[in-house]
Amino acid sequence: MKLIIINGPNLNLLGKREPHIYGATTFEESYTALQNKYPTVDLHYFQSNIEGELIDKLHQVGFDFDGIILNAAAYTHTSVGIGDAVKGIETPVVEVHISNVHAREEFRHVSFIAPNAKGVIAGFGIKSYQLAIESFL
């Protein structure tokens, strides 16, 4: 199984940014743990703070991979372009959030990705990524 985790803006700051919300673990540490937990999964990772780069990556992998785990972060709530990219590809996408977006500011309750996603996982911390992998297995 070939999966990719695609992370959006500010997720490169995990472990430093608002640890009371996002935890104290870096994503690189979490990614290594996921690779070790799922050695038979061909797991890839991409992060960008730039909306167009996220769209380009979705286009690149959206016809060849078995699944995409997408945490578009703030772009989830603002990017029609990323939502359209998810709609336009064949690979199933699971939308992931570390925090419970529905317990946060009202603007975070709207997702342009969810209507075209296989599912949405939110609020389980960094374990949200593990739950997304499990959804593909």
TrEMBL record:
Site, as annotated: Transition state stabilizer: 17
Gene Ontology terms describing biological process: amino acid biosynthetic process; aromatic amino acid family biosynthetic process; chorismate biosynthetic process; quinate catabolic process
GO molecular function, a single term: 3-dehydroquinate dehydratase activity
Amino-acid biosynthesis as UniProt keyword: yes
Active site residues according to the UniProt entry: 22, 97
UniProt-listed Enzyme Commission number(s): 4.2.1.10
UniProt-listed Pfam families: DHquinase_II
Catalyzed reactions: 3-dehydroquinate = 3-dehydroshikimate + H2O
Family the entry assigns: Belongs to the type-II 3-dehydroquinase family.
Function of the protein: Catalyzes a trans-dehydration via an enolate intermediate.
Name of the protein in its database record: 3-dehydroquinate dehydratase
